[in-house]
Amino acid sequence: MHAAVLHGPRDLRVEATARPEPGPGDVLVRVAMAGLCGTDYGIWAGERPVGYPLILGHEFVGRVEAVGADVRRVRPGERVVIEPNYSCGSCALCREGNRNLCLSRTAIGIDVDGCLAELARVPERCCWPAPASVADEDLLMTEPLAVVVRAVARAGVHAGESVAVVGAGTLGLLALQVLLGKGARVMVVSRTARRFALARQLGATATQLAGDGPLDAAARAFSGREGVGAVVETAGTQEAVSHALALVRPGGRIVLTGLPHEPTPVAFFSVVRREVTLIGSMIYQDEFPEAMQLVANGTVRTRPLVTHRFELAAIGEAFAAHQRPDAIKVAVRTSFAP
Ligand SMILES: [Zn+2]
Ligand SMILES: [Zn+2]
After folding, report:
1. Where are the alpha helices (DSSP H) in 15-114?
2. pTM higher than 0.85 for the full model?
């Protein structure tokens, strides 16, 4: 088969590789379409160390090609969406139901070979049968959508509440739609106005440029009170937490989903004095079915976020496109046509 194999930082080659064979409990998936995200880019650029060589990619939809012994949940020919993280299942955290926090969690496309390939081997428990009525391209963002489904649930948002989303990338534009589905009024805050037209088209009640005047005043004007009740942070930048603190009202909640790896300056005095609740949210654990349901019932529209499409053979161009200012989600078709 053909795969995009990373041999070192910025050394990604599409080449012929051995066909993976499914062991007991494994499923071999013929990848239909994959999405690129900032994590893939960070690995490609060498910012995140991995073991080389590695087949990149973790966001994908495909069809079951073959199954190993003991596989019961899926059958060959079935269309599946892949949950690209699996935990050890036996540690205290896993047994308590916190498998997204497992210290021995395995991430497909990071710790083991991923989906920028014609075929990918994954454990059976990573496979979710795809709703028949929904096209591959619409399901392509199920993984990031599951991330924001969890984040929004952790924010405990109620209908009619004023909420801010910080960041207008894939996660921000998905969070916007999940929040609207909960009946919230949503203000999208970003450092650039580039995505504001799309945010409005997807239903944003308001948009606000970060850096264009004080955010606290904007949040007061938007909410009609001391600030928004909840903030969902998706930007992953150093300033994003400060922005969230400026937006939230006393007694409000901030859910952090972006992953700034650098230390973040936070004015903790304002957290204490205003009794703000800071909540971390780490990927997902049971959110894939709800994410697929939100796409199937039209609450979340993912297709407007697909800005670029490439074949696997042009993976270098796909990574270049990911960094373009107009890119939101870059899709890669993994059938191989050299
Ligand atoms: Zn991703
Ligand atoms: Zn575990």
Report:
1. 38-44, 92-95
2. yes
